[in-house]
């Protein structure tokens, strides 16, 4: 059996917050819940991943699903390369397929102020979807500015900047297999 080396923490990372095994176990649990709750669905489930941060989470999650599903993506912008939300969310790329009348599950990497998910929930509700739920890998509840509902949550975490497993800081550390806390970045 081959073993894959765990990349070491670089000097801009403080510690591993959630290791790869813990993430995998939680993703399995979440997939099991979704398999159960959508088992009698009358149509396919459309997983809408929010680029770029959710792509690894979505890839792992969808491969554990046993219900009929399709994958689509959207891309939004609110932060630029800074770590503070402006609350000014813009759609950069919409889903490829029309989601009207579909069962949609929005797949997001992390909930911080909540502006992004709030925008998305309003946007998808206005498209007359058959149902709308949200799955979020990480939540920083202390940072919330608007109230949004999470239907499936991976982990609640403290108010620190995290990278890895799809999450980045200015495009750095996105492909680490674990979630690490990053050294606070000063503007
Ligand atoms: P919100 O709109 O403030 O809830 O921000 C959500 C978006 O900000 C997420 O989809 C991430 O792209 C980004 N984000 C917030 N906190 C972090 C973090 O700690 N690491 C990486 N990205 C983050
Ligand atoms: Mg995101």
Catalogue the unreliable spans: none
Strand content: 25-35%
Secondary-structure-derived class: alpha/beta
CATH uppermost class: Alpha Beta
Structure report:
It is globular and about 50 Å long. The strands form two sheets. A six-stranded mixed β-sheet has the order 4-3-2-5-6-7, sandwiched between helices. The chain has a three-stranded antiparallel β-sheet with strand order 1-9-8. The chain has three helices and nine strands, in the order E-H-E-H-E-E-E-H-E-E-E-E. Helix 3 links the parallel strand 5 (103-111) and strand 6 (131-139). It is α/β, with parallel strands linked by helices and 187 residues long. The model has no long low-confidence stretch (mean pLDDT 93). 33% of the residues are buried. It has one domain: Rossmann fold, CATH 3.40.50. Helices cover 20% and strands 29% of the residues. The structure holds inosinic acid and magnesium ion.
Task: Throw out a few tags for this protein.
187 residues, 3-stranded antiparallel β-sheet, Rossmann fold, binds magnesium ion, alpha/beta, 6-stranded mixed β-sheet, binds inosinic acid, 3 helices
Brief summary:
The protein is 20% helix and 29% strand. By secondary structure, it is α/β, with parallel strands linked by helices.
Describe the secondary-structure layout.
Blueprint: E1 13-18, H1 20-37, E2 45-51, H2 55-62, E3 69-77, E4 90-93, E5 103-111, H3 115-125, E6 131-139, E7 152-156, E8 162-163, E9 179-182
Bound molecules: inosinic acid and magnesium ion (MG).
Magnesium ion is lined by residues 50, 53, 108-109.
